[in-house]
Amino acid sequence: MREKQALTTGDVARYCGVNFRTVIRWIERGHLEAYKLPGRGDNRIPVAGFISFLQRNNMPVPDELLQGGRTLLLLTANEDFSAELASCVRKAGWDCLLLNDPLQFGYRLAEQQPAALVVTSCAAQDSVARLLRDTEQRDRLLLVINQDIDPVTCNDGWHCFQWPRDQQALLALLSGAVSA
Length: 180
What we know:
The protein has helices at residues 9-16, 20-28, 47-56, 82-91, 102-112, 122-133, 167-179, and strands at 6-7, 35-36, 43-46, 71-75, 95-99, 116-119, 141-146, 158-162. It is α/β, with parallel strands linked by helices. It holds the Pfam family HTH_17. This is Helix-turn-helix domain-containing protein.
C-alpha cells in the first residue's frame, strides 16, 4: 500500500518534469484537484486526484503511486484450500491478504484499492459485484476460484477457475497480469 495520501506541488512537478509554478497554475485553472493547508496555505494534491489528472492527460502513472499494484484480496468461507491458494498467488508474485469476514473485506477493498479480488463462492461473487458497483471504478482482476465439481458460472468481467484442476491456468493469468 502506498504511504502518501497527498503530494506537494514540488512532488507533482518532479513527477511531471515541470516547474512547481506550472503545477500551481494547473490548480488555479481547475485542471488539478488540490486543497490548501491551514496557516501557510500550501497546496496539497490528493494522490488519487493526481493519478486521475495523469490518466486524463495521457501521462504515465509512476509505479510507486499505484495503489495495490500487486495486492490481491482473497475472500474465503474457511475452505480447506485457502492457504494453498494463497501460496499459489504469492508464487505468481502477488501480495495476498486472506479474509473470511465480508465486512473486513469491504474495508480492505476501500482502504487498499487492490489490483485483484478473489472469491471462493458464487454467493460471494454476487456480493462483491454489488459492492464494486458502489465504489469507484478501476480496472482490477476479478476471480472466482472454488473446488466444486460443476463448472462455475461467471458474471461479466470475472474469471472462473476450479481448484486445483485450473491451478496452472490461474498461475499463467496472474503471472501475465504482474508483468503487464
